[in-house]
Design goal:
The chain is mainly alpha-helical. It contains six helices and no strands. The chain has one domain.
Length: about 160
């Protein structure tokens, strides 16, 4: 996406998301202009973004004993939380704007109370959240993997006393 402005990149996100959302629930990664505008509000307001991550981490604690697909997906979601926290601090900025939109959009979906399947339903409640997160992960896997490598490198350097 070299040379594209944020508006052109946003249009690409909208177009790609609309073509990929067919066959999913109505709330599934709906990258309407309204949704992108909401995500941009979070990106611009660090305090609002911090609250979102805090709320998402609290909700993920409710699901920590889930097994299988849901647990695997929540583990990836936690990596997304870490990426956003590093982004907020300014420690990690090697993320395409499109991927940041997708990640924050998935986190917003996860936190939003109006799920297709209420989270209080035993055994099913986090399933739609997991599906949305898995869909988002498919879109940003390469960027998330790069972040994880960077994070692990940072942690190794800290352990060896090679950072400030």
């Amino acid at each position: 996406m070299f040379g594209k402005g944020k508006d052109e990149e946003t249009e690409t996100v909208v177009t790609e998301a609309k073509s990929k959302e067919k066959g999913f629930g109505s709330k599934m990664m709906d990258f309407s202009e309204e949704a992108i505008t909401k995500v941009r509000e979070y990106i611009k307001d660090k305090d609002k973004l911090k609250r979102l991550i805090r709320d998402a981490e609290e909700k993920s604690e409710q699901a920590k004993n889930k097994k299988g697909f849901v647990q695997d997906t929540l583990d990836n979601l936690k990596s997304m939380f870490e990426l956003v926290k590093a982004y907020i601090k300014g420690d990690y900025r090697n993320i395409p704007y499109r991927s940041l939109i997708v990640i924050i959009g998935a986190i917003l979906y996860f936190v939003m109370p109006a799920d297709s399947i209420p989270d209080v339903l035993v055994g099913l409640g986090f399933t739609d959240d997991a599906a949305v997160i898995a869909f988002a992960l498919k879109q940003v896997k390469e960027d998330l993997d790069k972040f994880i490598v960077w994070k692990n490198t940072q942690e190794s350097m800290e352990e060896e006393g090679l950072t400030e």
